[in-house]
Structures are given as structure tokens and as C-alpha cells.
Amino acid sequence: MKRLTLYFALLSLIFGACNPVQPVPKDHLSILSGVVNNQLLFDGTAGAETTFTISSKLAWEILDTPGVTYNPSSGEATESVTITATVHEANRTLESRELGDVTIRLARTRFTGITAHQRPLVTLEQQEVVVAAQQNLYEEFTFECKEAVEVIPSGDIVCTASKPLSSSKYNVTVAATKDNLTAETKTIGYLTFKVDGTTLDGKVAVNQLPAISFDRSRVTVGGNEGEQMSFAVNTPFDFTVTSTTPAITVVRGAESKVDITVVEPNSGSEERKLGTMTIALADNPACKASIDVWQRKSKADKAMFFYYLGTSLRGYYDNNMKMVEKIVKSGAMDDCRVLAFIQSSQNSGKLLEIFYDKEFDTVIREQIATYDLPLLYSQRMISRILKDMATRAPAVECGLFIGSHGKGWLPKNSSSAARTTFSTVAADDIWTPAPGAIMVRHIGDSANTQLDTTELAGAIQSMGCELSYIVFDACYMANVESAYDLKDCADYILASPCEIIASGMPYEKILPVMLGEESVEDRLNSVGKIFVDHYTSGNNSIYDSACSAVIHCNELEALAVATKRVNGFLRDIDPDSVQVYDGVSASRNPTHIFFDIEDYVLKSCTDTDATTAFTEQLARTVTGQYHTKTFYSAYNNKANPIDHYSGLTTSAPILLNSASAYIEDWKGTAWYKATH
Question: What is the pTM of this model?
Fold first, then answer.
């Protein structure tokens, strides 16, 4: 009998060797639900259950998984069966563990690739606790456990009893029992966990912050004599500050800040190391930390100023700045200063310098100044902020990016409506988006926070630096009236004649271009095209909408001369026949506001020579024009056709309809006065 049994066993081995187990064909067995990322997950408690559902074309059987049972564990062919899996033991560690493979056998095939995992009995929200350098300052620590749990401290720490926050979430607070009077982070104790009288394997380290630390690897000061900056020291203790270099003076400032003044200019071509600054605890001078002090060049190669006005687009501004910081972190902006003004609220804002610390591998947002903003925004307020930017970051090439809503040259308040027949439809405000419209980008959020282009121009001219370019990340700013107001503010303007989708410019794509060595004009043309391509999906979406134009400011005066000549040969035309760039409909306003300037001249001027001179000068003024097939307007919530595109608009055709809302305001513009 034993020989017969051995014989059959040998036959089985031989048969198995000749016919190895094969994987299950794809259509024979399917996992319908319950498995995530090829894992069957259990809670950490003993007896924890989870379910999964399969479909099989053949009889099936689940092979053993250590510590797991299945019910049912086998069955016949079925379209759907739900299996309950139960884990036998608790996971008494602080880490997830792999229990083994979940293998399903069909005849001589096997379905593999699924593994069983069990979460820890205690799930940590953080892998360590960090407490303050000072003793008895408690920090919260939160974790999850489905059973009653005790937290046991060891070392130089104290810990409160576990406090239930919910059926499974607990909270404790932890503090050091001694001050850390060193400049190093120290591990001062551990937390262990006891569940049902059993201490779990593993522990959580409690680390104490140093008495003195810095958020950067070095301090960088300005390149000119007399420049000042404040540098924050991370310490809860009183301290003193000394310097090894006479090139700067350092004094203890307010709170935990050090005020630094540059004594000597750096007229060289590179940044230079000035020396070392040392911070020591006043009551324990042996506890100290040092940081190197570097000085920038007197003038950087490039500077980019980002001015984001208002709060209604704050979320979009935050995303814009994340894109900027991404390029800063890449190291591409090492030779470019980056400053940004962002409103914290309707009545406050802050000026930041953004740079990358390579050693710490982090982007620093250094706060330069804070501002209390008035109820009514003014040229004086904007001048102060822009002047602070220019003073902080002198550069050979300066560019200003303005993010806001935009309404071109239109006056900042609606007083004009009271002087026109438009007052009869005042309740149906021109500038109220249509129902269902998406967000688009005037200068300011509301009447109180808007600015006229003349005020903006005055503020920019008071900066104290020559701007190579202005990029308007705001609607309707490629209009000749605004450009003429701003012609003495920069060499070039990049703007859109229509609305800009609220997400704005793709800064991660355009900033590397603006860091290039090509001419400003060529770089802006590349940016204009990139902007349009960014909003072109190829699917003819209603939101495929982007227009841009590069305006050469030095040519605007000549354009005014050519336009004045054209205005001597005008005939009346139907303004609705001219290409427009706003979605204002007849029910909301008797006429549109922004018309293509070239299309208007070609249709209204009766003198061929004047028309030719105008178009030739326009080509010298607008050196790049890019657009999608249509433009989106929130004021009619649809895509509007573009049949003629010069990149620059004018509001001149509003004179053809006496009911237009802004006729008297338009006649007050510098452009009107220069061309009539």
C-alpha cells in the first residue's frame, strides 16, 4: 500500500512538472471590487474584515494566505460572488505590514498579483513630534486607533493623557522639560503606545528645535551703499548680534530681527561674500550660530516686478506665483531679481522678494514691506509700492507684470453714465457678466479700488527706473488710448485687446523666454505667441480664447500723427460692421466699446494715402499680433468671431452713436486730444 501511494505521488510530481501551473486567461476571472492598487487592505485590529467581489468562468479556489481566512474560499463558475476576508491577529506595530499573496486557482491556472496588507493598530499623522526650544511649550500630536490606547513618554518630555477626538482619532500634547540651549536640533525622548495592556513595537521620536536657527543658508544684502534690510532670526530667546566685516553694520531690531545696513557698494560684476554674522544667546553666549553675509551687485542683469492688485482674483494670483516660484527654484533666475506685491486683504498688502536658497533647497519669500491700503486707491499709493520695488532691486533691464481686472482707458467710476442716455439702463450694468459666465480678468476690484490709466502711468513714471517692458495680465489693455497714456512708461507693452481668462498668463512657460538674451521685442513676441498657444486646445472650445499684441511705445506718437491725418477724411459707417473685442450686447449698451483700430480706419477713411500711411505706421507700432480664432467674453458668455485682427483697439466708433455711454469721457483722453 505504501508503495502504491508513493507511486501515485511520483506520477503527480511528474505530471505537474510536465504541465506547470499557468496564469489565468484575462477573460476567465475578474476582480469586480474591493481591491485597490492590487492590495487587499485590513484594519489593524484582530478579526478585521474586508470584502472583495470576483467573477469567474470556472470553478475557483483561494489558496492559503498566512493569517487570513476567506469565506467562501471556493466555488463554482459565477458572474459575481462577494468574499469576506478576515485577518486573525492585530498589527501591533506602527507600520503597515504585508501578510502575503492572495492567489486564486482555476483548474491548473492561478490568478496572482494581489497582496494582503494590514494597517498598523495605531496610524500616525506624522512620524515625529517637533517641540519648541523652550520648555513647557506644548505641541499637539494626533493619531488614529480603533481601540483604547495609552501614550507613554520617555526622556526629557512630558505628555498629556490621550484625548479622544472621535471614535478612532486621539490627540495628545507634548512638551520638553528643559530648554535646548544649543544651535542643533536634538532628539529628547520618545512616545510609545500601549493597547489592551500590550506595548506596540516601534516608537515616535520627539525632537526639540534649536535655540537659534535660520530659514536660509546665507543672508544677501543689497549692492549699494546705505541699503538696509531686516533679517529674522528663529529664536524664542534674547540674543546679541556681531559681525566679522566692517562692510555692514548690524544691530538688534524689533522682535527677533536683525537690522543690516550696507556700508560699501559692490561695483563688481559678481556677488561677493562680505563676512559672517554671529547670533549668540544673551544669557548663554556659548550658544551661538553663524551665517554668511553676501552682497549683490549694484545692479542686477534683470529684474521682474509682479504687481497683483485686488483680492477677487487672489486664488489665481496664488497659482501664478507658484509658477513663478517653480522657475525661481529651477535656478534660471539666479541673475534676475524677483519682487511681488500681493494684497493680503482689501486694506493691506505686502511686498516680497522671491529667491532660491540652493543649500536649503527652498524658495524664500522675504517680506520687504507691508502696506496699509486706503479705502480709495490712489496714484500716490501705487507710486509708493512701485518705487519700493525699483529701489530694492535696481537692474539693467526691468520688467513689470500687472495682474488685475481691466477695462482699458475707461474711467474708474461710473459717473459718466449719469451724463448720458445710458442712465436709463443703469440697472442693467454694462460690466456685469452674463449669467453662467466664467471668471475673466479692470485695474482694481471695485469702484473704490480702481485706477485710471493716467494715474497708473503717473505711478510708473515715479518708480525711478526705466522699464523695458510692461506685461498686462488684465483685460482690454491693448487699446490705443491706454497705450498712449502709458507711452512714456516703458519701451514695449504686451497686452490683450479682449478679455483674459482668469487663470492668466502661463508664467512657467513665458518667464524662461523673458530671461533670454534676444531683444526685448523678440522675447515679447515669443511670449505673445506662447500665451495664445496655451489657450488653443484645437477642439474649437468656447474657451479657446487668447489675444496678444506687442506695442512699441516709441512709435505711438507717430501713430497719433497718422491717425490725425486719417480723421480729416472720415465717412460715417455702421459701427457694427467693425471688428469688436467686447461682448457688450445691444440690450446692455447701445454700442460696443473696443473696436479694431485698423479695421475701423480701413472702412471709414476715404483717402488712400492717409490710409496707407496709417497702416504702415501701425505695423511699426504693433510689432506682433497673435490670436485664437475667436475670443470669449463674460459679458455675453460665448465665443465671438475674429475676422480682422491688428492687435490694437480704439473706441473712436462710439462717436457714431450719440447714445454711447462714454463719449464725453473718450473726448477727454490724451489720445483724442492728440488726434483731433
Answer: 0.81
